[in-house]
Amino acid sequence: MAKKYYAVRQGRVPGVYTTWADCEKQVKGFGGAIYKSFLTEAEALAFVKDSGSSLSDFMSANKSEPKSSQDVKSKSISSRSVKSSSKAQNKVSTSVVKPDFTHRNHVVAYIDGSYNKGTNTVGAGGVIFLNGNRETFSFPSTDERYTSFWNVAGELLAAMYVMKYAVDRGVSECSLYYDYMGIEMWATKGWKRNNALTQQYAAFYDSIKDRVRVHFHKVAAHTGDTYNEMADALAKQGAGI
Questions:
Q1: Pair 39, 125 in one domain
Q2: CATH number of the domain encompassing residue 137
Q3: Domain containing 186: what range?
Q4: CB neighbours (10 Å) of residue 129?
Q5: In a domain, 66, yes or no
Q6: Neighbour order of strands in the sheet with 173-178
Q7: Total number of domains constituting the chain
Q8: Could you give the angle at which helices 196-208 and 151-168 cross, rounded to 10 degrees?
Q9: Would you give the DSSP letter of residue 235?
């Protein structure tokens, strides 16, 4: 049997190991661990050293022109109660604040994430409203730092995309509508940030929160909300579903 080299890019002690037993000690039970086996030591070392770009760099690289835009008139979206089944959820607002598309210099966005298990691809997508215009975005990621977290990574990438969108345009207010509570709870320290992805997300939020005031609004998933459904479809498109 050919000798294998086990590369741990993200674990208790990153490095190259020559036995699975030693590698397993570094990754088992470690949230967000990234590791892979290789037939040569050189390949393993290259994998460990290639830590990749930061999340903000990733978004910059994936930034694309809006796929569609149109004039937007103020539309009424009825508020609905969001029932909570956990103590953490009870600490946040229990009703959805109706979006106001008429505010100037205030980003309003619906976002979602998806995951294609067949191709191991994360998808992020959303709908952004600003100053009477509507834009959509959708992009994939096969980066191992994200694919191990499935659709959750897509949710967080979409949230950061919108936050960066606001920062890049000098907009100081941003209302995010989403159906996954972690988008708010990891940003506001309501949930523990116990893996690399949530820690990076929290660090990104902390880096922009003094420039953009983010208002978090959870909506119920798959209940016919037009823009929530659109964000869901765009995230799936990004994942190739």
A1: no
A2: 3.30.420.10
A3: 106-239
A4: 22
A5: no
A6: 133-141, 121-130, 106-116, 173-178, 213-218
A7: 2
A8: 20
A9: H
Q: Which two tokens stand for residue 33?
A: 């661990």
Residues 132 and 200 in one domain: yes
Q: What is the CATH number of the domain that holds 36?
A: 3.40.970.10
Do residues 41 and 121 both lie within one domain? no
**96 domain residue, yes or no:** no
Query: Between helices 226-239 and 151-168, what is the axis angle to 10°?
Result: 110
CB-CB neighbours of 83 under 10 Å: 9
Is residue 175 a part of any domain in this protein? yes
Tell whether 28 is covered by a domain: yes
Nearest-angstrom CA–CA distance, 109 and 86: 25
pTM comes to 0.65
- Residue 103's Cβ-count burial label (10 Å; 0-12, 13-18, 19+) is middle
Per-residue pLDDT of the chain (241 residues; tens, 9 = 90+): 678 899 887 777 778 889 999 988 888 876 556 788 888 988 888 877 764 433 444 444 444 433 333 333 333 222 222 223 333 333 344 445 677 767 788 999 999 999 999 999 999 999 999 998 999 999 998 888 888 899 999 999 999 999 999 999 999 999 999 999 999 999 999 998 888 889 889 999 999 999 999 999 998 877 777 898 999 999 999 999 9
